[in-house]
């Protein structure tokens, strides 16, 4: 939501005028004081009105919905989506004729969009928000693929006795690899690098 400005004899009066226009309470808005105002000489000459601007604080799910609507419209995709809270994550699930375009090659487009959305929403909210984007069950299929990959790499490391670094993955995908091999008696896993190029390394147990 965009900012609105208001004036008053004091900052408090200006804020009350602004939240009145929005129809919300003061604890539901973000406030920026543009000018604290001045009473002037003896409260008569040279006085200035206090001036503020406010905007409504939106919940992460509403911000996510608005952001994704703009992205979908900008890409011209024929898809719909639904936002749900699952544990500590906000999940947006897409479906529709153009969903494969949204997924991209091996999920590249979906992962890039997920990274962009997380950065944008966290910056807007001012705190860490965890968001996952999915499209017609792609994440679940991808998880099964990653589990098979983890077992193959474990066997490769065991035979070659050399550590193997996987391709960069999202935090959620890296977690799948770590969880799949955490009880493996022959290998252990670590993560190396910086986001978004952080990767899992499968290492031989000594």
Average predicted local confidence, pLDDT: 88
What is the fourth-level CATH superfamily of the largest domain?
Answer: K homology (KH) domain
The CATH topology of the largest domain: GMP Synthetase, Chain A, domain 3
Number of strands: 9
- Which structural class fits the helix and strand makeup? alpha+beta
Structural Rg = 25 Å
Helix content: 40-55%
Query: What is the strand content?
Result: 25-35%
Low-pLDDT windows of residues: none
Compute the number of structural domains.
Answer: 3
Write the layout of secondary structure elements.
Layout: E1 4-8, H1 11-22, E2 29-35, E3 50-56, H2 60-75, E4 80-86, E5 89-95, H3 99-103, H4 108-125, E6 130-135, H5 138-160, E7 164-165, H6 171-181, E8 187-192, E9 199-204
Helix pairs in contact: 2-4, 5-6
Describe the structure.
By secondary structure, this protein is an alpha+beta fold. It folds into three domains: 4-56, no CATH class; 60-136, K homology (KH) domain (GMP Synthetase, Chain A, domain 3, 2-Layer Sandwich), CATH 3.30.300.20; 143-204, R3H-like domain (Ribosomal Protein S8, Chain: A, domain 1). 41% of the residues lie in helices and 26% in strands. It has six helices and nine strands. Strands 1-3-2 form a three-stranded antiparallel β-sheet. Strands 4-5-6 form a three-stranded mixed β-sheet. A hairpin with a 2-residue loop joins strand 4 and strand 5. Helix 2 crosses helix 4 (108-125) and helix 5 packs across helix 6. The radius of gyration is 25 Å and the shape is elongated. The relative contact order is 0.09. The model has no long low-confidence stretch (mean pLDDT 88).
